[in-house]
Amino acid sequence: MKKIYYILIFLLIAITIFRYSYLSFYKHDYYYEKYLNATNKIVYGLNAPRGRILDRNGKVLVDNKGINTIVYHNLDNIDTLNVAKTLLTILDDVKEASIDEQKDYYLKTNNTDNLLTKEEQELYSRRKLTTSEVEELKKSRLDDLLNYTKEEKQTIYLYYLLNNGYYYDSKIIASDVSAKVCALVNEKNIDGLTCEYTTKRIYLYDTLNDIYGKVGPIDKENRDYYLKLGYSLNDTVGLSYLEKEYDEYLKGEKAKYLVNDDNTLTLISSSKQGNDIYLSIDIDLQLKINKIIKTYLAKSSNYKYTKYFNTSYVIVSNPNTGEIIASTGINKIKDDYYDVTTNLLTSSFAVGSVVKGASHTVGYQNNLIDIGQKITDSCVKLYQVPTKCSYRRLGRIDDITALKTSSNYYQFMTAIKLTGQKYHYNMKLKVTEKEFNTYRNVFSSFGLGASTGIDLENESTGIKGSTIAPDLLLNLSIGQYDTYTPLELSNYINTIATDGKRYALHYLKEVKNKDKVIYTYEPKLLNEVSSNFPRIKEGFKEVVYNGTGRGYTDKIYKPAGKTGTAEVVYNKDITTINQTYAMFAPYDNPKYSIVVMSPNISYNNDKERYIAPINRYISQEVSKLVFEK
Prior knowledge:
Blueprint: H1 2-26, H2 28-38, E1 42-44, E2 53-54, E3 60-73, H3 80-88, H4 99-109, H5 118-125, H6 131-139, H7 150-163, E4 170-177, H8 179-188, E5 193-203, H9 209-212, E6 215-217, H10 223-228, E7 236-238, H11 241-245, H12 247-250, E8 256-259, E9 265-269, E10 276-279, H13 283-299, E11 311-317, E12 324-333, E13 336-339, H14 343-346, H15 356-365, E14 375-376, E15 379-380, E16 388-389, E17 396-397, H16 399-404, H17 408-418, H18 433-446, H19 470-477, H20 486-497, E18 501-503, E19 508-513, E20 516-520, E21 525-528, H21 533-546, E22 560-571, E23 574-585, E24 592-603, H22 614-628
Parallel strand pairs: 2-10
Antiparallel strand pairs: 1-8, 2-3, 3-4, 3-5, 6-7, 8-9, 10-19, 11-12, 11-24, 12-13, 14-17, 15-16, 18-21, 19-20, 22-23, 23-24
Helix pairs in contact: 3-7, 13-22, 15-17, 15-18, 17-19
């Protein structure tokens, strides 16, 4: 019995020592900060510098620049209205308060009970109206009472900045002020008001800036989300794209101060810069591709029927990892060029025959293709539908030469077989949603009409046609019904390159704290596709060596790929043509893939079916860059 008693005492002592050590040493800082926060004794400095964004080779893409910032640390017994009036004599170009800010100020500084009826006052006293409801009623009746001067509106705006957010938050009053203004603020020696050296984001190259994203204050829509994560309302956060996606790594650690009894501040810990994120982007390659696109956009007016052409897109990626090595969209308006790279994930297009690797997969998976069996290319005529043909008569074709020559007829016959019917001239083809879903499910397994897993928000998955009709099923099979983004095409061609392994596309490569790697992006396998990839790859090789894609990529790189042409309604009177090229190389051990898309590159006319070779020329030069870099 005594032995058990001693064991229990020993265990209690051991647990006590462990808990004491755990709280006193390991969790000391955590609980000490909790204590200080609970007693309102801690304030935080401004946002620490964010981490940089660099390319795969360590070239800085986004950095921080030092600026002078007027900061207010809210202290006890400070008349912020007087502070606002003093600031107005120092700062240049102060904004005027908004109507809502003026109304809030009026309610704070005036007795406004007279704005309520007796009935409303009675309801409020009986708690039938809430305080916020009463405030809204008062605000709705203030419009005729607001007659502030310009100077008063500016003072109210500064007053709003001084009092916005939580009491102990440090407030940014003005950013990027001159050294003269900074000196004047410090000279006035106003309690709680300082001019501090902070940072702002700078972009070192004129490309991809929208993909990096924006930073700024927390907006109302995301307020609760960030507060739950421990952010303060005055924090600067990533608002979009990569800055938002990887904010947890990029954000720095703010300085902590102890508020003394005399309202002075004692530094507890200094600020720390955020981690650097390294992208898979090769900025040198990106800039050279941009130059190629701009060159051909400038030359486009030398070609016929290019009146509506003004944009091209290029994506270079690694099929085996999903890394995006270059991605760009360049738009030309008159003589100016604009970066429209975000269109790669937000805009979708009809892409044409480039999708036929996925269309063939519908045939392979459903035993609708007799491998190697030849048929004679022809036309399809359905009841009350105009005759549908390939771009020319292609003779005897099998599943490989159908890809090589881009036979529409071959795909039409596969689609008709999928319905369980046999084709005959002027037949009434019966189709249901089931056949459309079969195609779309296969297409989405390649990434067409599905998320690519890209580490960016706002990705579009294209537009699915809503009408079920025989001719539209045939159109779907040749890429002329649903629409897809350039990123989806990149995901698609990568899936073919890897024999059916679909990896998520991504921009992040790794995260570093100085030279220490703290996170490395591992390829994410989204799904695997079953198909006859040796036949598809052989067909795609024939496309570039001897077929419709001949001349798009030099044979020395051992390429395989597919071209696409699609007619689209530009407006009610004009039909334009999109051109697309998707490839990978070497075909037997793919290292890179390239997608080149040029919407509205030509338009239909009565004279001739001519399409300027701009997409081919861009593809030639980009291929050479990628495979010889």
